[in-house]
Amino acid sequence: MTAAEGSSGNRRGGAVLLDAVLHFRALGLVVVLVALVGSTWLANSRFLSAQSIRDILLATALTLLLACGMTMVVVGRGIDLSVASVLGLSAFGTATVLRDHPGLPVPLAALVGVAIGAACGAVNGVVIAYGRVPALVATLGTLYVFRGLVYFLAGGSRVNAGELPRSFLDFGTARVLGVPWLFLIAVLVLLVVGEFLRRHRAGRDLYAIGSHEEAARLAGLPIPSRLLLAYVVSGTLAGLGGVLYAARYGTVDASAGYGMELDIVAAVVVGGVAIFGGSGSVYGAALGALLLTVINNALPVLGVDPFWQRAVVGALIIAAIALDRLVARRVATSLRWGDAHVR
Amino acid sequence: MSAEADRRPLRLPRRLAGWDAAVVLLTVLTLAVASGAVDEFGTTRNATFLILDLAPVLLLALPMTLIVVSGEIDLSVASTVGLTSALMGELWAGGWPLETIVPLAVLAGAVLGAFNGLLVTFLGLPSLAVTIGTLALYRGLAYVLLGDTAVADFARDYTRWTIGSLGGGWVPNVVPPILLLVVLFALVLHATPVGRSIFAMGANDTAAAFAGVPVERTKFWLYVVSGAVAGLVGVYWTLRYSTARADNAEGLELTVVAAVLLGGVSIYGGRGTLLGVVAGVVLLTSLQNALRLAKVSADALTVVTGTLLILSVLLPNLAAALRARPRRRALPPAAPGGPAPPPAAPPPAPEPTRRDGSTP
Global pTM? Predict the structure, then answer.
């Protein structure tokens, strides 16, 4: 009895501490963001012009969208390395459909792109949840399969902006009260996924699965269907991302979004979503996505060689997980001390 | 995890032997069919090229096998190749002699590997996340060094030797040193206490630590060796194409991981043989070579590689699930589909070990 009591009190203390740490994390990210924006603005005041801010929001939109799906997957102790390939497949598919069927209503074409994404996500999900292939292996495989498919379909060709309907391209740059429409879509998705993960039963199940799969199984959670859901959502959002990519850039070739999965993983990890599941929120991932985009936009302004971008992404991933580990150690140590105190 | 441990040992040896033999058989079959069906495939000229193409994958697969058997992974190998290649280019452009550059490149690779190893063992970070990070970091640093320029015109003596053949025949000069390395790695993995301890920590690294295996130290050195071999491949790659570019060997980590898994090494650690991996490498590269000769586009190759990677894990899982089916009825609520691997990456167990090993 006492042991059970002790452990439950312990857990509550842990949860409170973890909350504090996550809040601190978000606060830290905000501080870094403000400092970065501030110093870049001092270096060049045009960095905060309306146009430049719109560029940042537009660029954040895509990362944010994909990071939402990735958060769901990572919370459930998985990873989806194929998102960038799915985005490429969907972007090229949407653009091709629009070019080949000029009369087609734009929403229908967008639906095609989203459906492509959902189908890709379903492939990942079935292989991982039912075929019991580790997510890393499965999505590393589909990363190349889907990208190979785009190259195969494109065969070196590309779709130019001139071949796409005007209304579609306008949609890519349209604004509401000065805010890019694409960014608003991404924020809407963020809120929905955030709410889902926080309150919805299936969302909570993902945290349970990510924390301890065996325990979740013994508690009777439908693990395969929950994992399938996470991967289908991730694929669907990547598909939506592909549609938005095509609308924003207009010119789409087979390499659309190439290598973007690293940015997404970085955004999620930097945002405090633990790579081994069970903790983190989609809002943290959103902050991570914003930070990455701001860094990418700030480097050229600060006069740093743009070739540094990739190295910075890698360093950020490592710094974020190292920080997580150090914090986790601190938490564990303080919990142990707190325990001793109580007894 | 425990259900997995209970059930596995019973049928594993048989299944493993079966998978190994199957891959070797499949490899021989592929070679035979390809030399019959594809015109140019069976020629000695093509054999030379095939071996030259195969060399980097095989070399990187050797330490990768050890790392995956130990329950970890290293996705940064191709980026390490790129960075050491860029470093070679930078030093060569700076007028250094190749005699100095080559050992420096291998040393640089070892240092990059040691960085991975430190993060994984000392800080206790998950190797998947660490090496995804260094995959981006090392490739990024390669671009920082060289940008999108290339350094070419390396010393003729060296580049000629790299693509040359023994005594003017068709067996490339690089074959003896590579064979030596293969034998060395096979001996270490299968015939030394170190090799046994690698299997032990891959199966359960807490148990291995309690049995006195220096888990952290061994893993650290595995990453150092992996980095050094990647540095060596960077040298080979640069000399073979006589070009140092930041994007050298980009994406090669997929082929290496695919070959290792195809060779029957379990992604969960603790199982695999080097013979199977060698067969897996030969199978994958000769398949790619044959497809290329048959004028199948390079895009189909990536699809084939990715599919093989997934199938190499999916098929054994399905087979195990089918075999476990009657048993499942006997144990009603047990995990469907037999062993229940965590969906994310290899090491579900290492956490306790780390606490044992690194919080003295």
Answer: 0.82
